[in-house]
Design brief:
The chain is of the alpha/beta class. The protein folds into two domains: about 170 residues, Glucose Oxidase, domain 1, CATH 3.50.30; about 30 residues. It has seven helices and twelve strands. The strands form three sheets. Strands 1, 2, 3, 4, 6, 8, 11 and 12 form an eight-stranded mixed sheet that branches. A two-stranded parallel sheet has the order 5-7. A two-stranded antiparallel ribbon has the order 9-10. The model has no long low-confidence stretch (mean pLDDT about 95).
Amino acid sequence: MAMSLAEIGEKLFVSVLSDCLDQLGHRRQALAARIRPLDEGRVMVGRARTAAFMEVWHAKEGVNPYELEIALIDSLRPGEIPVFACANGERIGPWGELLTTAAMARGAAGAVMDGCVRDVRAIRALGFPVFHGGVAPLDSKGRGRVMAIDEPIECAGAPVESGDLVVGDADGVIVVPKAIEAETLRLALDKASGERSTLADLRRGDRLADVFARYGIL
């Protein structure tokens, strides 16, 4: 049975999805450990919309450096998540309060980037989930420019395509490819149920070795 984004957020979490993707042989779907939530209390679940930055060192006069970035944000639909591959995350800060406000108005579920974020107090106050590779005041103008949207990218080491399921929580961000989404979710529901039984037995005082032998979950 298909799960809604809300159900995924309620019933599953990043670590169990990561385990199930490992089980299916997809071991590169977790973004690098440096990608952290701006607010660890926020859970993000949605569909990827990809953008690929190219690193630049100047801004041309008369050329809109944000053209494709704006096009992506303006085309967001409810439940979608812009995912930015930033080429050089230490130089490019593509996300701030203005893009947050525009994305929220279109019903976006969050934002992910391997570059930097700014305006952090304002974004936290808005309650919008943002997962980032660092905090810096840098504008992307003159440092990076989006050269492609809705094409396959690699963000913080993980392959991402538009439409992929993206889930983020305090443990990080996982990307579930569309082709194996149904199988991954089925396995994850089973594993989450097994983990609840494991926890109940451990709280009761059962030995860890016995509980592992019983459920095979650790």
